[in-house]
Amino acid sequence: MSMFRSGAPEIPVAPVVDASEAAVDPAAVSLLDDPQEWLGFGRPCTPSGSALDASAVADPASSTWDSHVVLDGMHCAACALTIEDALKSVPGVLQADVSAATRRARVVWQPGRVLPSQWMAAVRSAGYRAVPAMDAFVRGQRLVESRRALWRWLVAGFCMMQVMMYAWPAYVAQPGDLSQEMETLLRWASWVISLPVVFFACGPFFTSALRDVRQRQVSMDLPVALGMGITFVVSTAGTFDPNGIFGREVYFDSLTMFVFFLLTGRWLELRLRDRTAGALEAVLNRLPDSVERLGADGAFTRVAVRRLVVGDTVRVLPGEAFPADGTILKGSTQADEALLTGESTPVHKPEGSAVTAGSYNLQSSVEVRVECVGAQTRFAQIVALMESAGLQKPRLAQLADRIAKPFLVAVLLAAFAAAAWWWPKDPGHALMVAVAVLIVTCPCALSLATPVAMLTAAGTLARQGVLVRNLQGLEALAQIDTVVFDKTGTLTRDAMALHTVRLAGDGLDRASALSLAAALARQSLHPASRALVEAAGADDGRWLVSHLEEQAGLGLSADVQDRTGQCPPRRVRLGSAIHAGVMAREPGATEFAEGADGAALWVVLAEERGEPGHAQTLEMARFGLVEDLRAEAAMVVRALADAGLSVQMLSGDRPEAVQRVAAQAGITEARGACMPQDKLAALQSLQAQGHRVAMVGDGLNDGPVMAGAHVSFAFGRAVPLARSRADFVVLRDSLTQVPQAVLLARKTLQIVRQNLWWAAGYNALCVPLAVVGWMPAWLAGLGMALSSLLVVLNAARLSKGLPEAPGGAHGDPSPSISQAAGGSSSAAVSSFQTAEPA
User: Fold this and answer.
1) CA 695 – CA 678 distance, rounded (Å)
2) Secondary structure letter of residue 805 according to DSSP
3) Which of 154, 339, 630, 649 has its C-alpha lying 20 to 30 A from 556's C-alpha?
4) How far is CA 808 from the centre of its chain?
5) Residue 276 contacts by C-beta under 8 Å, 6 or more apart in sequence?
6) In angstroms, rounded to a whole number, what is the distance separating the alpha carbons of residues 54 and 61?
7) What is the DSSP letter of 322?
8) Beta bridge partners of 646
């Protein structure tokens, strides 16, 4: 509220008028009503809120828009409900969600019926101010607000010390020690010094209270402002008329003390909120405001990022964020992609590499061709997920919101009843009892208990590469007892690995056979070929390959010469058994059927012998390949089991392959040959038995079962984030975040319950003390400030990082796991080579 009244630039806002008038009256159109500006704080979407394709941007007025704004002047859940009601009352606004914890709002609106200036004016008419969430000067206004809050706190603290100095003689003096003139002088001095506190430091409270009176509503600032006003009026009356009904005692010391305590709590709360829940705004402002674009004359000129279109060439300087998804045309650099993957290690980006909007250019200037802009970028999809989570209200927070206004009304009635009870005995004391009740019962801690903890946990997960798409998923995740994994792309990687080698007695040893197979496989991009090359390691240069031929999907043929002279030149085939021509067997020969011996695929190495046209093939070796189980899979399964969770697997693959992967991962319950409907039926069967189930999949064909689970995880690299149905999207290519997210969710729910119990217990203890007159106003102010601060500090414990899962699933993988996650699976392959068939 204060930051917009301190000389910050005003946004032209059109008055709320009928949509038909706005369509014909150009004077009613403000800067924010220019469709070119809408992309700066929103995106086109369907009425349900999902993103549209890029064609929607070409004609903005034809689409429904999803816009986000920062709100000024709100402090509690009651304010959020008031703003929601004001927005929803505007024709053309389809949906409005307001978060008291982040002070942000999401508005879904139709340009054909309403303009941004109109629904922003509705917010203003309710006594608040809305500013585009991605506007260039929002960060400056936040700084102004923080400085104003600091100045109010300093003024209140200085004046409190002075007033306490003048009040001290009255506390320690014996009867007759202070003359009437001296006592009157001290009262007048206290009154003068209290004026800056009332008219400057208390400004936000009184402004909000006046707004509530005008709007005929109630928020948490109303009882606080009433308490401050009553205390100052009673003390002023006692100063001007020492012999009147309020002249027995003045309360300037109590006034300045509880104002100082309240402002201390709010300032610290503001700092903590900016550091935790305010992480979303840091993400939103990650893109640069402008970038250098190559013009038709060959010169670079700086333009606004929202003016970029696909095909533009831009120059990104060191230290700048890439403004859009694209490809480097000239130069090389390193990029910080921590937002996209959770990994802080810089990524090398040579010429021709793809770069992503929101990642930082760390090293040198590069020229980039723009390929995706706006809502189509990966950055925009991540932001959309984070915005959606930040504005959702968990079930416990919704309950707190519903009781906020009735509770405040009850507070006002309780204060009135306390004043009426004490009035016949001592009017001055009666009013101060009412003040203590008004202040001590303000439910700030209750309204902050749930959203602050949830948003802090969501921010911690985001920093570790896990996006919370559904904030209520944290509550559900804390209560699960079963985790179901998909196999392909989840427990296993897309690549294959060598499982076993079987020699056919041709005289080649294991190393020579693998080296020969890899010499041919290096000429192919088939996954089986890549697995053989990976297993063989670096090229030893032994085999000279010529006249190579490849039959797509079948295999390779080539002339091979041994440079060491140990083997004669030969024609070699590598591929399927059909391609190698070794399906027929002589009696007594060892049979190698496809899929047997625990391998998912067999690759045959064979030699052609005889004249062309009459050649026969002789098998030299067979290589059994399996899907590459993630190096961390067994550790993650063990960590989940140690956390008390049952782990199962559902897959559409062959039952034999599923059982092999399950055995390697340590999963005892696994089912194969499952169609999507079979997975959903199995999930529903578990739920019917009373289990609460989390589903972990890649999101490609697991949509129904992920939507049906109590909570779900999807890997962000596997699907477009905007279409993901998962509650959590894992950006890292690792499963280690799953057990840690479970533990963090449990800790989050534990902290939420602690906060709620603390808020309820605090009110249950302090309200009776205030009613009977045993709690002075300054102590009530201290208790209210400390209760809110304790709730925020307790939630801040969640920002320390992901907890260590039982079994050793660390947030920062050990070197062996990091190697495997980075694609170097030689150690894993080596273990496969020596393993016995499953």
Assistant:
1) 14
2) B
3) 630
4) 24
5) 452, 455, 456, 459, 795, 796, 799
6) 14
7) P
8) 482
The pLDDT value given to residue 739: 92
Number of DSSP helices (H) and strands (E) in the chain, helices first: 28, 27
For residue 254, the Cα-to-chain-centroid distance in whole angstroms is 42
Q: How far is CA 282 from CA 99, 134, 359, in A?
A: 17, 10, 13
CB crowding 375-391: b at 16 or more within 10 Å, else e: bbbbbbbbbbbbbbbbb
- Residue 404 neighbours by CB distance under 10 Å: 24
Structure tokens at 92: 């053309």
DSSP state of 190: H
Q: How far apart are CA 756 and CA 791, in angstroms?
A: 9
**Strand arrangement of the beta sheet that strand 313-316 belongs to:** 300-304, 290-294, 313-316, 366-372, 325-330, 354-355
CB atoms within 10 A of CB 112: 13
Burial 484-505 (b: 16+ CB within 10 A, else e): bbbbbbbbbbeebbbbbbbbbe
Tell me the pLDDT tens digit for each residue of 173-207: 666 667 778 888 888 998 999 999 999 998 888 88
Q: 66, 253, 486, 733: which one is catalytic?
A: 486
Q: Where are the alpha helices (DSSP H) in 632-736?
A: 633-642, 655-665, 676-688, 703-708
| Residue 623 to residue 602: CA distance in whole angstroms | 6
> What are the φ and ψ backbone dihedral angles of 735, each rounded to 5 degrees?
-90, -5
User: Going by DSSP bridges, is the β-strand pair 325-330/466-468 parallel, antiparallel, or unpaired?
Assistant: unpaired
CA 321 to the chain's CA centroid: 20
**Euclidean distance between CA atoms 346 and 257, whole angstroms:** 51
How is residue 72 written in tokens?
């000024």
Strand 347-349's sheet: what is its strand order? 347-349, 333-336, 360-361
Q: What share of the chain in percent tops pLDDT 70?
A: 73
Question: Could you give the C-alpha distances from 703 to 468, 482, 493, in angstroms and in order?
Answer: 17, 18, 19
Residue 233 to residue 238: CA distance in whole angstroms: 9
- Which regions of 374-489 does DSSP assign to beta strands (E)? 466-468, 482-485
Q: Name residue 142's amino acid.
A: R
**Residue for token digits 């009373």?**
690
Give the model's confidence band at 138: pLDDT under 50 very low, under 70 low, under 90 confident, else very high.
low
Span between the terminal Cα atoms of the chain, in Å? 67
Residue 586 has pLDDT above 80, yes or no: no
| Contact assessment for residue 105 and residue 49, using Cβ atoms and an 8 Å cutoff | no
Question: In whole angstroms, what is the distance from residue 119 CA to residue 227 CA?
Answer: 34
The tens digit of pLDDT for each residue in 604-649 reads 888 887 766 666 778 888 888 877 788 888 999 999 999 999 999 9
Active site residue 312: no
Contact 106, 67 (CB under 8 A): yes
**Residue 385: per-residue pLDDT:** 60
Lowest mean pLDDT among 42-56, 140-154, 181-195, 405-419: 42-56
CA angle 595, 636, 634 (to 5 degrees): 35
Tokens of 565: 């002279």
User: Angle at CA 132, nearest 5°, toward 128 and 135?
Assistant: 130
* Among 578, 574, 569, residue whose Cα is nearest residue 523: 574
**Phi and psi based region of residue 686 (left: phi greater than 0; alpha: psi -120 to 50; beta: remaining):** alpha
Handedness of CA 733, 735, 738, 739 (dihedral sign): negative
627 forms bridges with which residues in the sheet? 496
Convert the pLDDT of each residue in 432-443 to its tens digit.
888 877 777 666
AA letter at 554: L
